[in-house]
């Protein structure tokens, strides 16, 4: 398993969300990149030096410090979309090789290079910026149907990474909640939501969302006989 490229965002105007800028235009960089733990949400701070989130309400912070996507999935999308997708083309920080990103367990830990340890925290949720960036009508629904969202990661041990680094899975938790399953539960298959609490490493905001949705469902079921 290998890190093919480290991709840093080049700010550009964001007409799709009426924001001043977006960092979705991520491009491979050469040499080492420092990885650190973001200190807070809502500031745009992310885990890679030289990068940042511009939609600070929905992106960045410790639970979305780094975003990874598999080169194999990009290759499949190239065939579907009929267009070239460079590393970083989906706005990912890390483009990986021979690593099942969507099959990774929530809470799974990866060592990248000699120093950095990352923890899988949540699936990526598509937004209007992503659809506008690709210029494809109906892209959000198409992306949801595919259930190949890629993974957000926390930084547990900072350091430096670079293209060509080895990726090693150093911990797999004792549950079956994968990135793909969590994504399906949160986007279109609510019957899967009761399985998510097994994944303790989910962000607190996601846990709260699951509690609200499953609680509402229980209330509806409980009210049918009254």
Automatic annotation (TrEMBL):
Pfam families: MOSC. InterPro entries: Benzoxazolinone_Detox_Enz, MoCF_Sase_C, Pyrv_Knase-like_insert_dom_sf. Residues 27-170 form the MOSC domain. GO terms for molecular function: catalytic activity; molybdenum ion binding; pyridoxal phosphate binding. PANTHER family: PROTEIN YIIM (PTHR30212:SF2). This is MOSC domain-containing protein. Signal peptide: none annotated. Transmembrane segments: none annotated. It comes from the Bacteria.
């Amino acid at each position: 398993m290998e890190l093919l490229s480290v991709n840093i965002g080049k700010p550009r105007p964001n007409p799709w969300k009426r924001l001043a800028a977006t960092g979705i235009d991520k491009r491979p960089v050469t040499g080492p990149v420092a990885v650190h733990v973001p200190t807070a949400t809502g500031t745009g701070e992310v885990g890679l030096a030289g990068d940042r989130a511009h939609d600070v309400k929905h992106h960045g912070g410790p639970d979305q410090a780094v975003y990874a996507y598999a080169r194999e999935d990009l290759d499949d999308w190239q065939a579907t979309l009929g267009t070239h997708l460079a590393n970083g083309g989906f706005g990912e920080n890390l483009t990986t090789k021979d690593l099942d990103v969507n099959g990774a367990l929530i809470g799974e830990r990866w060592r990248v290079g000699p120093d950095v340890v990352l923890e899988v925290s949540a699936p990526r949720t598509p937004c209007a910026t992503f659809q506008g960036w690709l210029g494809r009508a109906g892209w959000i629904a198409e992306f949801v149907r595919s259930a190949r969202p890629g993974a957000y990661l926390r930084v547990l041990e900072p350091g430096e990474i670079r293209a060509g680094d080895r990726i090693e899975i150093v911990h797999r938790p004792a549950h079956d909640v994968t990135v793909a399953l969590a994504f399906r539960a949160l986007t279109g298959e609510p019957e899967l939501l009761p399985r998510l609490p097994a994944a303790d490493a989910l962000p607190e905001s996601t846990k709260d969302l699951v509690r609200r949705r499953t609680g509402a469902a229980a209330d509806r079921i409980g009210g049918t006989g009254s």
